[in-house]
Specification:
With about 325 residues, the protein is α+β, with helices and mostly antiparallel strands. It has a single domain (about 55-315), classed as Oxidoreductase, molybdopterin-binding domain (Sulfite Oxidase, Chain A, domain 2), CATH 3.90.420.10. The chain contains 9 helices and 13 strands. A hairpin with a 2-residue loop joins strand 8 (about 205-210) and strand 9 (about 215). It starts with 10 loop residues before the first helix and ends in a 13-residue tail after the last helix. The chain binds ligand MTE. Ligand MTE binds near residues 232 and 233.
Length: about 325
């Protein structure tokens, strides 16, 4: 992990790092089986929100982590409002239990699981990934999750399964953004999709936590997708359904504005979005907005994961398949 020089470090970041290291010690302790049983996942009281035991997952970036406060207060989750602070304010009472995850479509073993049963077979890992939003900002987040490929192998897709479609909960009583009058231009429920080989890629995870704790509601509790080489909007939150299909799914953003949002949405500094350049990005949490804009960094092809994923798109024109 890169350590910043003292003058650049804000007090909140210092606290975050300290608390995080303490949590890591706690988790290492628990990894030895001393505190928590396998994959314990409990919400509620603060002391019980820890996740463990955690393996250290592959592909971790050693960049400085984005402070917890920024990761949990600068969110896109339109079901709870379109301002960055809305999800933290409006998702506080979102009920994430009981929670059913349905797996269906072209699979030999379709099933509807209670969340705890769905997660139980998988070893939780810490995955430190960059997240790059199409709005030209980025973060580094220590997710807690497990490989989506493990789930896919277990449910045995049939030969018809070419794509995987993910759906967020539809519940306007809890999600004010889904009510017609507060419309955001999106058709609900939020839908995303991946090609089967993208979904099977070892970088792709289902996340249940971050910073060693259960996912905060605003970050997509209780279960979200994380696909680090694609723009953040592909990482769908609060998933209730995973469906295996033959035809390419129509995603929520494609449906809303097909000329601005394609199916692939791979991070690509060479293909600008009509409203945001994709060549550079500011890193959330690194000082004031002005400081972030002054110290913008170059956006990397596939968000820096080209070595791992570029082969998936060999021969494809990535300007056409944006
Ligand atoms: N999932 C749902 N259901 N609804 C959303 O509005 N926003 C997406 C994605 N997943 C969104 C969603 C966008 S635009 C981004 S950038 C990421 O969530 C942000 O994730 P974060 O708030 O954890 O950083």
């Amino acid at each position: 992990m890169l350590i910043k020089r003292a003058p650049d470090v804000t007090p909140s970041e210092i606290t975050d790092e300290k608390v995080y290291r303490a949590r890591r010690r706690f988790l290492q302790f628990s990894a030895a089986g001393l505190i928590l049983g396998p994959n314990l996942l409990v919400g509620g009281a603060a002391a019980a929100d820890k996740l463990g035991p955690l393996k250290k997952g592959p592909y971790a970036t050693d960049e400085k982590l984005t402070p917890y406060r920024d990761v949990t207060n600068y969110n896109n989750f339109y079901e709870f409002g379109s301002d960055k602070k809305d999800p933290a304010a409006n998702a506080k009472n979102f009920r994430t239990r009981p929670w059913t995850v349905t797996i269906d479509g072209a699979v030999k073993r379709p099933a509807a699981y209670q969340l705890e049963d769905f997660i139980k077979p998988y070893a939780l890992e810490e995955r430190i990934y960059r997240l790059r939003c199409v709005e030209a900002w980025s973060m580094v987040i220590p997710w807690v999750g497990f490989s989506l490929a493990e789930v896919i192998k277990k449910v045995e897709p049939t030969s018809q399964a070419k794509y995987v479609e993910f759906t967020t909960l539809l519940d306007p009583t809890q999600m004010p953004g889904q009510r017609p009058l507060l419309g955001t231009g999106l058709d609900w429920p939020y839908v995303e999709g991946l090609r089967l080989d993208e979904a099977m890629h070892p970088l792709t995870i289902l996340a249940v936590g971050l910073y060693g704790e259960v996912l905060p509601n605003q970050n997509g509790a209780p279960l979200r997708l994380v696909v680090p080489w694609k723009y953040g909007f592909k990482s769908i939150k609060s998933i209730v359904r995973i469906r295996f299909v033959e035809k390419q799914p129509v995603t929520a953003w494609m449906q809303a504005n097909p000329s601005e949002y394609g199916f692939y949405s791979n991070v690509n500094p060479q293909v600008d979005h009509p409203r945001w350049s994709q060549a550079y990005e500011r890193r959330i949490g690194e000082g004031s907005l002005l400081a972030q804009l002054t110290n913008k960094r170059k956006t990397l092809p596939f968000n820096g994961y080209a070595e791992q994923v570029a082969h998936l798109y060999a021969g494809m024109d990535l300007r056409k398949y944006f």
